[in-house]
Amino acid sequence: MLEGKTALVTGGSSGIGFASAKMLKDNGARVAITGTNTEKLHSARKMLGDGTIAIQADVSKLDDLDRMQSELRQAFGKLDIFFANAGVAFNTPLGKTDEAMYYRMMDVNVKGTFFSIQSVLPLMPEGASIILNTSWLNQIGTPNKALLSASKAAVRSFARVMSAELLDRGIRVNCVSPGTIETPIHRGPNESDEHFCAYVERVGQQVPVGRMGKPEDIAAAVLFLASDASSYMLGAEMVIDGGRAEL
Ligand SMILES: NC(=O)c1ccc[n+]([C@@H]2O[C@H](COP(=O)([O-])OP(=O)(O)OC[C@H]3O[C@@H](n4cnc5c(N)ncnc54)[C@H](OP(=O)(O)O)[C@@H]3O)[C@@H](O)[C@H]2O)c1
């Protein structure tokens, strides 16, 4: 399906990004992944197999993004698919959130998404597809999630505005909007398997389909938005949340 195409997945070393990189590769694309943790990144590259490129780059640092662009240019020459996926998530209760927490959330999720798109745009030809990772939280009021929800609402907005801005270049920008997906983002640094399994079970019961989402549930939507099968979609949001926001 994607033979001859090249793809970049930021935050491709884990969770949704890793599953998406695998699905894009399994469908014929040449794939590059990024992350901040070198060890994690290289073990993900190994699992993805030959031909995958790993670039250590923090999306919140513009120097890293410049280097990412030049490594991509050298390796691929052009970029057909960009999944802007790298992100962080943590609670920010109004009374317990300091300025450093504010900047961490906004620097990675908002600034990182904006400037990573800016950095790869010169490599993108007509017909290219940009997919952003927002969240089902972008429209609902969940306590303690003001900054995460606002950061993902900003990303949702980017898809609309950038689609309009890139219309004459024939580049589409759409979003995937995951519900609660079983990835390391929900796991504390020293959390036991038992504790995490209980969390997965508990959250699963709150979802109409009866389970927490899997990274592959989102990767399937990324593949669709990356392919020409979605060529009539612009500035849209695909919600993949097991029915949580609607039912
Ligand atoms: N899981 C969910 O329930 C859910 C729901 C809605 C939206 N999302 C979104 O999905 C995206 C992926 O999350 P995930 O659930 O797959 O979590 P994950 O497994 O923790 O993956 C996060 C990825 O982002 C990378 N990353 C984090 N900060 C980065 C930075 N500053 N620069 C570059 N890479 C960075 C991580 O690599 P390093 O650790 O090496 O930096 C990792 O590869 C995020 O944007 C998240 O907000 C997730």
What does this 3D model show about the protein?
With 247 residues, the protein is of the alpha/beta class. The protein has one domain (6-240): Rossmann fold. The protein is globular and about 45 Å long. The longest helix has 22 residues, at 99-120. The chain has helices at 15-26, 38-48, 62-76, 99-120, 146-165, 193-205, 215-226, and strands at 6-9, 30-35, 53-56, 81-84, 129-133, 172-178, 237-240. Helix 2 (38-48) links the parallel strand 2 and strand 3 (53-56). Strands 3-2-1-4-5-6-7 form a seven-stranded parallel sheet, with helices on both faces. Helix 1 crosses helix 7, helix 3 (62-76) runs parallel beside helix 4 and helix 4 (99-120) runs parallel beside helix 5 (146-165). The model has no long low-confidence stretch (mean pLDDT 97). The protein has seven helices and seven strands, in the order E-H-E-H-E-H-E-H-E-H-E-H-H-E. It is 43% helix and 14% strand. The site of NADP nicotinamide-adenine-dinucleotide phosphate has 31 residues, from helix 1, strand 2, helix 2 and helix 4. Residues 10-11, 13-17, 34-37, 40-41, 58-60, 85-89, 108, 112, 133, 135, 178, 180-181, 183-185 line the site of NADP nicotinamide-adenine-dinucleotide phosphate.
